[in-house]
Design a protein that fits this description.
globular; Rossmann fold; 209 residues; alpha/beta; binds cytidine-5'-monophosphate
């Protein structure tokens, strides 16, 4: 089984890298941040935690009570609400169980904050992406139309602080994670570096070309 864990702070490029690695190695892509965002969306819609059921379809899309909400999750309000809800032990417990169940059945590239440390402690390879808050805010501003750099930077710094100081599963590289500093690198450079690292770890075995 191939389990590739990618962790790192908000807007560090995890999702773009995860897409590329999932394609390259024939794995299911699981974006765990979307699951926390979907819980926050459920709360925003007036459900209690007990009334919220998060699942993933066979493409890895995130479902909230049976509805595919994958395309509704990238909003500034859910950036903050998801990181607040992610501090709740009962939420983490349920989502970690779901993530582990998915990985038990499939080769996966899974990205988030605690994949290498908690969800997949025995992952084939663990990558941890780093970039300065300024660089990450600039990237996110480029992705979201009309978004203002300084507001995004403030949000990212608040989220970093909450994610890395929470009591359960704080954002940290696993002891055996390979840290990739992406500040001075293009996405293509990061992808090539990561593919090389994964191939070395897989012993040169290529599952797709
Ligand atoms: O990765 P993304 O920005 O979509 O994640 C949204 C929020 O969900 C993060 O700020 C973080 O608080 C939380 N999260 C988490 N553990 C994960 C993935 C995301 O706590 N594995």
């Amino acid at each position: 089984m191939i389990h590739i864990a990618i962790d790192g702070p908000a807007a560090s490029g995890k999702t773009s890298l995860a897409h590329a690695l999932a394609r390259r190695f024939g794995c299911l892509l699981v974006e765990t941040g979307k699951m926390y965002r979907a819980v926050a969306l459920g709360v925003e819609r007036g459900f209690t935690l007990d009334q919220i059921e998060i699942t993933a379809d066979h493409n890895g899309h995130t479902m909230l009570n049976g509805e595919d909400v994958s395309s509704l999750l990238q909003t500034p309000a859910l950036d903050q609400a998801s990181s607040k809800i992610a501090t709740r032990p009962e939420v983490r417990e349920r989502l970690v169980t779901l993530q582990q169940q998915i990985a038990a059945q499939r080769d996966v590239v899974m990205e988030g904050r605690d994949i290498g440390t908690v969800v997949l402690p025995h992952a084939t390879v663990k990558l941890f992406l780093e970039a300065s808050p300024q660089e990450r805010a600039a990237r996110r501003a480029g992705e979201r139309d009309g978004a203002e750099f300084s507001a995004i930077l403030t949000d990212i710094i608040a989220r970093d602080l909450r994610d890395s100081t929470r009591a359960i599963a704080p954002l940290n590289p696993a002891i055996d994670a390979i840290i990739i500093d992406t500040d001075q690198k293009s996405l293509v450079e990061v992808i090539c570096e990561a593919i090389d690292l994964v191939e070395v770890r897989l012993g040169g075995h290529r599952s797709s070309d």
